[in-house]
Amino acid sequence: MVFDVVSLGEILVEFVRKEKDVMHTVPGDYVGPFPSGAPAITIDTCARLGLRTGFIGVVGADDFGEMLVERLRSDGVDVSRIRVDRESATAMAFVAYRSDGSRRFVFTLKFSASAKLSSNDIDPDYVARASVLHVSGSTMYISKLARDACVKAVEVAKSSGRVVSLDPNIRLELESIERIREILGSVIKYTDIVLSGEDELLMVTATNDIYTAIRRAFEWGPDVEIVVVKRGKKGSLAVTRSGDAIEAPALLVKEVDPTGAGDVFNAAFIYGYIKSWKLDRALLFANAAGAIKVGRVGPMEGPKSYNEVVELAHEKGYEF
Asked: Is the pLDDT of residue 173 over 90?
């Protein structure tokens, strides 16, 4: 099978506090489990949009793992490279929201099945069959095994002439920013497209100016051709190595649950890239997809189809 996109990394279930401003330090109610994991959200959304997709990951031999594999399979993702580890539990995340929109996470990732993803799980032929390999930085912060798997995957993709997209996806709950910069350096040299949140790009490049951050990203990654900046309510920005800069407005909706919106955005932008769209169209499409996710509870509950994204863009007054 030939793929449009393959991704790899953590796949987990997420539990969310029902009330805002109630942190994990006190008893209270959670809702879930919701399917989650940054690269899993991106690949699932790619499949729902109509792309041919595959995923490489590890789950435990438990109900959560079964639920996750079935979710990806039912949405059209090839799950033949998801391994079941009978000695580990499927990864979990617990999320609490504050009134200002900030989040507090507790992860079991470093002690989970996802942490056992290794270079042995990377079949070079499988990776080489994809036009795009998408990597989330968060995967590399889980364990050295997972980090080595990502490095092997991007090396295979580049040697096969494929495109590599990278979301830094900073998780300070997993690693310090100094260590994150070091880790990202092992894959940025293979990266063609950087897909980053604005705050994350500023943090990882150690600057307070977004255009300085973008310039540093191009200097850091010699093969980087496009840097895409996700700016939430301010929309999105894409800058090419040749200096073209395109902005697209956000499609504002009532915010219900923003977790996963950036990963959904990634999928929609990759869709536009694969379809050879102009940057302004790809950004608008990605903004619309992210907006749909923000309006729904559950990190993987983004758009169900390509048509749903286009319909929202039309509803907001944009030609597409």
From this structure: no
